[in-house]
Amino acid sequence: MTLYADVPGVVETREVLGETTLVVDPARLVETCTYLRDEHGFNFLSDIAPTDYFGWGEPGVAGYIGTASGRDLNAPGSQGLAQVPPPKPKRFSVSYQLLRVGEDPTRLRVQVWLDDGESIASVVRVWPAADWLERETWDMMGIPFDSHPNLVRLLMPEDWEGHPLRKDYPLGGEPVRFSDED
Amino acid sequence: MTRVLPSTRIYEGTRIPSPIPTILEVDAEEHRLEDVLTVNFGPNHPSTHGVLRLVVDLDGETVVGIRAIIGYLHTGFEKNMEAKSWWKSVPYPARVDYVAFQANELVYVLAIEKLLEIGVPGRATWARMALAELIRIHSHLIWLGTSALELGAISLLWYTFDDRDEILDLVEMAGGTRMHTRYFQVGGLAEDIPPGFTAEARTFCDAMLKSVDDYEGILDRNAIWLERTRGVGLLSADDALALAQSGPMLRASGVNWDLRKNMPYLAYDEVEFDVPVYPNGDVYDRYKVHVDEMRESVRIVRQCLDRLDETSGEPWIADDRKVVLPPRHELHTSMESLIHHFKIVTEGFTVPEGEVYLAIESPRGEAGCYLVSDGGARPWRVHFRAPSLAALQATATVVQGCLIADLIAVAGSLDPVMGDADR
Q1: Nearest CB to B378; choose among A63, A85, A129
Q2: In Å, how far is B172's CA from the nearest CA of chain A?
Q3: What CATH number does residue A23 fall under?
Q4: Which of A59, A121, B89, B109 has the CB geometry, 3.0–4.6 Å to B81, for a possible disulfide?
Q5: Is residue B277 within 8 Å of residue B302, measured between CB atoms?
């Protein structure tokens, strides 16, 4: 815990399953990341993983079946949650998986929380590897990155509408060509 | 070569283009723009290792600008997996990196096991390691065969695919199908390693070492191969780390980094092997890393086979009836087993609420898996860290100043699998 006490902008430190997560103030993300790279030696950005918590702990959302209140074993098809998961502070989380390549290899997760429409600063200047990872985050989740040099879609076509990995984006939502609905 | 003001560089001496690290733009001061020809490679081009599209700016025969465009194989695996139960989503990861299928399956089940905090029997661990290393050889063989093919050494492809077939036979023996086996289960293996597997695998190991020597003999004495791979596609150690390169890419740039050694998982800290590292960061060194790694993988496989023989008859899947299917024979006699079987297949098992990131050394480098569970029977979020995506980000750095003919060799040396990059 005290290992990262000197890191600026940290709101909360969690240690679960042997993994350390620093929840960071989105406004100070670049400052925090630069500090972690220069002072703590996290020279390797493994991954940027955005998550949409829309409908977290509620019934009837894509990716989730069951009842919010608990698991009723007597009702058929009601495989729900044994308990309602603790609420999340905002709709989206963006997790930066950092790695220290060299002596004392360590992993660290830097996490920021955002609401729909909020943007965060780009860390391309800190780790160039963030370029496509941030583009993918924008493409899939619709989280914009300020000062990203080239924020366009990465995987979906340029004229695609919507951000497919959002929870409110339907599975199989592609329009069928030459159908009656056209 | 692009000339950019030093102040916009990320650090002194880097070749990574700026401000966009993945796009090499034509420098209007160095080249007359009316001389620059823009050529489109792919996405359906026989030498691009799948549906990679490269938009290349040429001045004469020299590459002065490049843009890699991906997404043509985007399949929405991550979205699909959110709609399946944990149990039913296990086949998906093998389709992500379809050349190193067991490696992706492994990282997914390991991540679920970490969330579940479930122990795996030793025999399953050794079988997983043996298959993961066989798949590393499989993936490197495909890389070697196709890379040599692209530079005109056609015969090598037939030899490497012959050996690849032997590996697929072994995979079929263990898992029942040649590819995408779903053999690794949460808690262990789908079935025990069959009798005779270790003997067959030993025969293969002996033959494989001879084959690797042959491949090296074919290429290392080939003047064309040497001329076309040495000093081409340079990537420095600092640039490789900044661009998050991993696996053979990183080790060919002189960085001694292998997750199996530096952050061991499974039982890699109990086997003996060396990590090949080469200093020059060119295509030739990447080839040497791949070839040496095949030998090291054979070493690991042999040690795993010894341990598999020692653990013969021991359990190969965890004894946790809430997660693992009960043994088939119990279904005829035990009501509880039948209920457990029914519940796991229809509703799936639940995974405690939480998030986890776990990475393994796949043939292409760090293959990671980020999972979020809400405590229910389905993953809330699955995200894969794709080593191919990272490798392709280095395209603009490694091709700087190379000739159009070398572009094929350089792009091939990144070892991208488009299913992995696009997911």
Answers
A1: A63
A2: 33
A3: 3.30.460.80
A4: B89
A5: no
